[in-house]
């Protein structure tokens, strides 16, 4: 692909599409399918025990000879273990979420791992560039999962102007129009989460995929704002419980307790009523389950069509 050359060359991939690291969702099968499709597949370390992460990374290696990555959630109690497992497996790329990635850069960069932190603000983007990050992923609050304050539309050009390293846009991108828009804002790649949940290779419970396929434009809700760690998911009985607690002034501890284990309940048990069905606003546009490689090709083809159509406008 002609688009996003700095990103494809940096990561050794064919298309400038990175699959979002997604706790409980982004396992070896999905990561390998995305990498085999020419994008960058990512295994989410989240709070996985180190032995399990090691197994997942070895499984990706067995399923693909293409580059892949690991996503390390810096606020997780297992983050230090995840860094060591990534080092032992000589993982080609590491993305990081929720915090300052100093330790990851220090430990993994000398081993040749490309480190690409997720940043919600220009200040963090500038800091990680100074620390040696190879690129940044700027994630807007349209995204599924833990979110910041700024939208992709606003955060992307701000971060593009703030740093010289390549910027990958995330949040609210699920088709070629979204990818073309991200490039128009100065991004050189995109990270996609929600649409890949609905890939054939993603092993979440069928109910989870159906909840995304059935989502409409107002199906998205944000839970846990008072805790300082807001999460975007699909509106359901759990999000109503959060609303009631927040309106009645419940304590941060009680609100946090309500969220505990709820992503697992949705992903593994298929409890889409009382589980946390993390997904972005763009869920409303996801209408089919397809192989990851088809998703990647379709999005890139559409993006090139959109951009060449705009390019030919007089
Ligand atoms: C179910 C789910 C779990 C997620 N977990 C993580 C995570 O563990 N670490 C992380 O950095 N981002 C996480 N994210 C964010 C994604 O990596 C990605 O940036 C986001 O989904 C992009 O926005 P989109 O959903 O609109 O495509 C998660 C997203 C979802 C939907």
TrEMBL record:
Q: What is this protein called?
A: Enoyl-[acyl-carrier-protein] reductase FabK
| Short name of any one Pfam family annotated for the protein | NMO
Q: Where are the transmembrane segments?
A: none
Give a yes or no for keyword Lipoprotein in this entry: no
Keyword Flavoprotein on this protein? yes
Which keywords belong to this entry?
A: Flavoprotein, FMN, Oxidoreductase
InterPro entries reported for this sequence: Aldolase_TIM (IPR013785), Enoyl_ACP_red-II_put (IPR017569), NMO (IPR004136)
Give the domain of life. Bacteria
